[in-house]
Amino acid sequence: MASFWIWTLLLALLAALFVLWPLRRREAASVVAADEGEREELVLDLFNEHLQELETQLANGDLEQAQFEQLRRELELSLLEDAGPAVSARGGKARWSLVLAAVLLPLLAVLLYLYRGSIADVQILDLREDYFAQRTAGNNEQADQLLDQLVQQLGARLQVQPDNEGNRYLLARTYMQQGEYVKAVGEFLALVQAGDVPASIIGELAQAVFLASGSRMTPEVELLAQRALQQDPQESTSLGLMGIAAFAKQDYARASQYWQQAVAQMDPRSPSAADLRKGIARAQELMGEQMPVAVDAVTAITLQVSLAEGVTVAPETTVFVYARAWQGPRMPLAIQRLQVSDLPATVTLDKSMAMAPGMDITSVPQLELLARVSFSGQPVPASGDWEGSMGPVVLGDVSSPLTLKIDQKIP
Predict the structure, then answer these.
(1) What is the tens place of the pLDDT at every residue in 249-266?
(2) Could you say which DSSP state residue 294 is in?
(3) Dihedral sign, CA of 255, 260, 261, 265?
(4) Of 292, 312, 342, which residue constitutes the final position of a domain?
């Protein structure tokens, strides 16, 4: 905040200098004009004297009328060239007007900014930065005091500007930090009711309702989470909540799918991702108790992969064969890399090919099997690639190698 006022003062001084600079030049011009006044009187006296001589010569017959007229015009032109600049009688008034403008202009600008500007928003941001600095330093008591001040200033600011969505969102998040979940619900709800908002805010509203209800999965929470996912199927907060809802209904497979999809959107090192991974492990453990034969007995699946007739691709082109959850997260649970020259090929996908702990082909109840010719050499599908897929496949129901043909071109 101190730097803000320093810059404001510097700009005010610059504005005053811009206004007062012409005054300095005007005063210098006034000194010169005083000397010019005496010079003008002398020039005018010489003009009158020469004009009188010309008139005498004309009267004595020494000059003809035409010569007299020519000489008089030349004399008048000479007078105009020698005459100095006139000093305006209003110079004093103009000077005081400029001085007054130099004083009032910065003052009025500061007053107008204090009345209509965003100085309060700057103070809020400074206070928020101070809070994070104190929390990072471990000064929790001082950080809590700053958080209380932040709530007070945000509330006061919203009294003046109730349509400021940024401040309202910040207030809602601050209430969540304080554990004031009911108040947070009110602020998030005001944002959602005001108009179109990102799916993430709807998800945060669902989370606030969940916590305000004593961490119970109420119908309202589920409806809000579903609304957010309709808008953005990858909204991580809502995916986490829907996983909780599925777990409460003992649908452990769906809970695991929701949570795996949520983890894929998060920083893997974050505490939230770690908590969800624990939930996934627990859900998969309970799934194993529900389906011991399908999950524990079979840990691999074999495919016979080939190109369909009429598909012509360079032999060195990359081919990916992989399995992923049916209608779940898009991350492969097992994958092998080949070349077109290897086809037709028999490929085995098993539990040992897991890309993340606890996320293998035995961790989901149904699989989707895919083979893709990738011209980019990357597993992410791209326009022009060829692929084949099949599913849903239940791992425990597979008794012989499956046939998978690559016959569809991605538009």
Answers:
(1) 888 888 988 998 898 888
(2) I
(3) positive
(4) 292
